[in-house]
Amino acid sequence: MINLCLFGAGRIGAIHARAANSNADVCIRYVVDVHQPSAQKLAEKYDATVTDVATALADSEIHGVIIASSTDTHADLIELSAKAGKAIFCEKPVDLDLARVHRCVETIKVQKVPCAIGFNRRYDPQFTKLKEAISDGHVGNLEMVTITSRDPSPPPIEYIKVSGGLFKDMMIHDFDMARWLLSEEPIEVFATASCHVDPAIADAGDVDTALVTLKTASGKLCQISNSRRATYGYDQRIEVFGSGGMVQANNILESNVVITNQLGALAEKPQHFFLERYEQAYSLELNNFVQCIRNDAQPLATINDGLQALLLAEAAIESYRTGQAVRLS
Amino acid sequence: MINLCLFGAGRIGAIHARAANSNADVCIRYVVDVHQPSAQKLAEKYDATVTDVATALADSEIHGVIIASSTDTHADLIELSAKAGKAIFCEKPVDLDLARVHRCVETIKVQKVPCAIGFNRRYDPQFTKLKEAISDGHVGNLEMVTITSRDPSPPPIEYIKVSGGLFKDMMIHDFDMARWLLSEEPIEVFATASCHVDPAIADAGDVDTALVTLKTASGKLCQISNSRRATYGYDQRIEVFGSGGMVQANNILESNVVITNQLGALAEKPQHFFLERYEQAYSLELNNFVQCIRNDAQPLATINDGLQALLLAEAAIESYRTGQAVRLS
Amino acid sequence: MINLCLFGAGRIGAIHARAANSNADVCIRYVVDVHQPSAQKLAEKYDATVTDVATALADSEIHGVIIASSTDTHADLIELSAKAGKAIFCEKPVDLDLARVHRCVETIKVQKVPCAIGFNRRYDPQFTKLKEAISDGHVGNLEMVTITSRDPSPPPIEYIKVSGGLFKDMMIHDFDMARWLLSEEPIEVFATASCHVDPAIADAGDVDTALVTLKTASGKLCQISNSRRATYGYDQRIEVFGSGGMVQANNILESNVVITNQLGALAEKPQHFFLERYEQAYSLELNNFVQCIRNDAQPLATINDGLQALLLAEAAIESYRTGQAVRLS
Amino acid sequence: MINLCLFGAGRIGAIHARAANSNADVCIRYVVDVHQPSAQKLAEKYDATVTDVATALADSEIHGVIIASSTDTHADLIELSAKAGKAIFCEKPVDLDLARVHRCVETIKVQKVPCAIGFNRRYDPQFTKLKEAISDGHVGNLEMVTITSRDPSPPPIEYIKVSGGLFKDMMIHDFDMARWLLSEEPIEVFATASCHVDPAIADAGDVDTALVTLKTASGKLCQISNSRRATYGYDQRIEVFGSGGMVQANNILESNVVITNQLGALAEKPQHFFLERYEQAYSLELNNFVQCIRNDAQPLATINDGLQALLLAEAAIESYRTGQAVRLS
């Protein structure tokens, strides 16, 4: 039995708790949250104990921690957990501050504990098949990647204010997918963006509609399209193009039922949002974490991947602010 | 230059005239129709002369005739044209009376003129590809054929009264496709039908919704679905199934534009009716007839195919009337 | 907590056990199987006790039974369980003998226990949406139903020999779907069939490829297409057509990844077989059974539905044998 | 009857000649080409006379000219034809030199003759429907446009050397579509590109794979993806996204036949190249030109559109060379 401590009992914490609970070999022993009622509720659901960080990390029977608390606590919890010798699963982003992320990377290197970052899309069966199709040679030499990633609706403005902005909060997933699929680091980043969805987002200093272009040293190109509001649901498509052809991962629809009449043929919308679309991915991600604890697997996304995605987000922000492309060394 | 005489200047006559005219090697020399204004209008459009049957058939410069007049004139015109040594293209059905069709088959056999029957779907590029896929082995041993064939709306009730009924007028195309794709004669026919679209059709002694099942001696099965009214347009799909897999010819849509919003993803309807859907087929059919006149080709559908399709229609009518399957010898 | 006893620890028993176990309010208390090792294995997995029928039914803490044992035991277990006052979930078919099924129906009527029959497809979210679309008026007056239902490969010949044959074993699901969607009893059944897949199936007195046509009193039509072998996987499509338009439930594919190259655009196959395709349906079916025990719901498929589907299967067999349509009173 | 003179009897000249000839009200009176055999061949096909520029323009019975000769002759022919009072249809690009294009624009303004530029895609029925869907409000406020435009294979290296390069020769169509769909001028252009297809293209100073990002003053965004080689054919897709939803114009396939087997479901490739894909567009474009001559219509693309597209191409070239975004005034 693998014993875990869950830091953070909010929405994403609940997702990981459910995924953990559905793994017969996992026990959620502790739940820690500054908001006691949330901690209490989740603890009851999964027969866990509400406690504090120190107690949880001091318990030698705890094998790993899930860090799903607010972003500003991630780095501290990573360092404390690493020093306590616990395997770490941490939600993205590691931190909004690059220097702080670098220190976490160092700590992990020194403490030699597994540290997985929650880029859940790497575990999605659709994108796994896409990645396999690339490996199997179906696109030949990869030349271009197109990532369409649009949310059904923006988060509350309070969340946006502390999120680090669209590039660090939302597009960071796409930067990670881009790196994963390109298999090569981007060296040039260009970003352009607008605020079309809600002027309050602009007032908060953020954007809600953005295009980013990446280029690698060998000339592979990538374009990313983000919007905080797609009336038709969660739009998650990836297209990879190369010398051999094209591979596309299309949206998964709410059902495969089609209604045809004098207006045309009406198919369903994509699955609404990340809870529905990536339900399997969250489960596979947690199972992978358990295998990492058992030394049977490596995380698909490490803390270094967290750092690299953040570097791209920072470059995109600079590009958007200056209106110029940014080179990465 | 191939000189043709067109019998019948109605809707289907106009289709063939246009197809003929777009072939640079064809001249429509005569138009014959009991309704003089229609003949006149079409003749003017294509620089032809309005005349009568005898004059047209007596003209030794006429190579072939297109019989697109009313069904009750087909058999007479086939026999007269054959005896005048003209190549014949005749719209389906040859005649509503089996004995009469048999006599036409005999005449053609004796006169040795090419005689093509207007089963236009055999010339459709989609179904040609479907047929090729079968020949290329993509379904392995053919085991089942499913034909969905639905009109957007029923013809005028006056037409229905003289049409010979759904099985001889509408499903006859599907019987021909079934024979063409099965490559084997059906020996068992079962038909069931209803009148759902318009009670006037029932009053006229006809049906508007029908399912037919065919079986060949080797056990190949075929199902045909007809309706006189599909709100979404002209539904023309064929699916062929066998030991190797399945090949489907899907509908052609009015465009490939898709509108996606909170309701779902709305694709366009199928092309509205036979004029749009089979425009290319009519043109290829006419070109094939010209090649037949030049002895460069054989008709894809002969007068014997016209006879066989009618035999199936008769069997379906009997099955519908008796409620029992009908065996063909 | 709802306590259940599972009769039958084979493949379908294991499916129901897993579905039951994933419901937090359900406890599988007993497993009964003539093959002790199977019972033992499943019992261990779910912390249940291996016992015999009498002991299980005598336990007053058992609320319901899942009958997933071999078909020849269904009727006895239904009657014993009903008399013991247990709620019953029984796999299809109730029995291969109509008289025996009638007696079960009587027993259930007298004992007044809930009795659900395992027509799992009624619980499938795709078909639920299809049914809702009909209720919501999207097809207008329903006129035709087309059910395509093909297995990836035939079962072992030993299974076929005791299965009751294609019509009672495989197409019975489609008869049930037809009745459910037509919302009216068929009064005419015509069946035609062949043996294309494996001559051993013919030797066993069965067929592997079949078309059935149904007609209701009001003239609604239905066609069913079955094959025991589709190279491309489990083909489960339904199309409903009427005065307002058409609603189709299409296959669910293994993924939505498409590979495009000089050969064309290759989409994935349908999900392989019933375990994958109806995983959600099995879970929802079990949850519905639990709600039935709590008097919070009615089974979507009752023992009477089991009887009616069997009547259609018997009629299809007679039609196939005689070559004639069969009328039902 | 509208009498036209065709300048240029090469591939694109032949396309326009065929489109002109299929319009019953058009007569191609003259064909002019420095390569006499080509002129002769086309002239014979359409009963035209081979002549020289001066003679053609001096003929008062000529209503309009089709300029389909090599790019370096376009500007001269535009000016000569305008001064001779002829309506002008000129293939894109007007000229590779911006100053020269400006002079042509001036001449047209002074001479007041209709001048249509061959941005054929504006006449394509698919894109017309897309444009209508935008006008009809289906995307709400337009926020992003995504244009995927890939050729099946690169042109000969000799053509590339004189073509002006990918941005002026190939992507210029996409710049025009972007302007047409955005209904607002881009003010920011960023281009990134690579040479993946053939090193000879790099040796010729050109690229074969490119991504461009555009932004308008109101913040509308557009991304364009070009490749000179798509193994699967001519990839011509456009997606428009906004506050109301998304409208997509998808590829037209070679047929709608799908082959399904153990590998999956194989649909056909897109129509091979511009001759097939835009056949209808060329015909509608020519018909529009005839209507312009009759003062019954305006060109969908004017010489000013030719100028604006070239300005975007120049900006993209500068952006690619400097690695920085370029602002347009």
Give a concise summary.
Four copies of one chain form a homotetramer. Chain A has 329 residues and is an alpha/beta fold.
Can you characterise this structure?
Four copies of one chain form a homotetramer. Chain A is an alpha/beta fold. The longest helix of chain A has 20 residues, at 303-322. In chain A, helix 4 packs parallel to helix 5 (98-111) and helix 5 runs antiparallel to helix 13 (303-322). Chain A has 13 helices and 15 strands. Helix content of chain A is 40%, strand content 25%. Chain A has helices spanning 11-21, 36-45, 53-58, 71-83, 98-111, 125-135, 157-163, 166-169, 171-182, 199-203, 274-277, 279-293, 303-322, and strands at residues 2-7, 26-32, 49-50, 64-67, 87-90, 115-117, 142-150, 186-194, 209-216, 221-227, 235-242, 246-249, 257-261, 264-267, 326-327. The A-B interface holds A 231-232, 253, 260-269 and B 231-232, 253, 260-269. Strand 12 of chain B pairs antiparallel with strand 13 (257-261) of chain D, so a sheet runs across the interface.
